[in-house]
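Students often ask what a holo structure prediction actually looks like on paper. The answer is less mysterious than it sounds. You provide the chain, you provide the ligand, and the output is a string of discrete structure tokens encoding the 3D arrangement of the protein together with flavin-adenine dinucleotide.
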Amino acid sequence: MTQDGAVERVDLRSRTLFTAAFSYRIDVANVIPPQAPGELAPATGLAEEHGWCPVDPSTFESRRVPRVHVIGDACIADAMPKSGSAAVSQARHCAAAIGALLTDSVPPATAFDSVCYAHVAPALALAFPGHFAVEDDRIVSPGPRAALPARLDRVEASRNAVAAARWYQAIRGEAFAS
Ligand SMILES: Cc1cc2nc3c(=O)[nH]c(=O)nc-3n(C[C@H](O)[C@H](O)[C@H](O)COP(=O)(O)OP(=O)(O)OC[C@H]3O[C@@H](n4cnc5c(N)ncnc54)[C@H](O)[C@@H]3O)c2cc1C
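The corresponding structure tokens follow.
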């Protein structure tokens, strides 16, 4: 399929995808709808026109509604990916920042991590780590961006799979005490 833009319409009966300029008959399609936070964000005045919520990156306090903090996919976190691990890192930092705000102390220094794992086989995974900091009121990623490796290193990939399982256990334990 050529890349002539976003899918604008899907006709299930004829199995056709329509873009602005062309139509494509397809057997299988994975159509991802435009992504935006849930209705709560615009309904509460937290979101901009485009649907995402601007925040102070040092505290995740909304730039539109004081004393409300927005973390995770809904917030505009600049260079940070919209990922579960990024959301957890923001949650930890945000909780500490709220604690500091409530006690009139200085919020902790801002540093975030994220890691996304993608399994290529049950015991082999790729890992995409990221480190982030706040500079000039924006979240930036000082280091180089993690890229897909040219060749799969099986030793590293099996280490990643173990790390992914540990990460999942840890995050589940923290979130649900299980
Ligand atoms: C296919 C797919 C694969 C992914 N793979 C990875 C991965 O490998 N690693 C990774 O780190 N991330 C991955 N992600 C991203 C990750 O799932 C999200 O970044 C993460 O879930 C964001 O967490 P969140 O809490 O911000 O939002 P969500 O997980 O979307 O949680 C928001 C919750 O709020 C609830 N809600 C909405 N409106 C209301 C309301 N009015 N009242 C009460 N509740 C409400 C929703 O039902 C939902 O449960 C993936 C995402 C997708 C879609």
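The chain has a mean pLDDT of 90.
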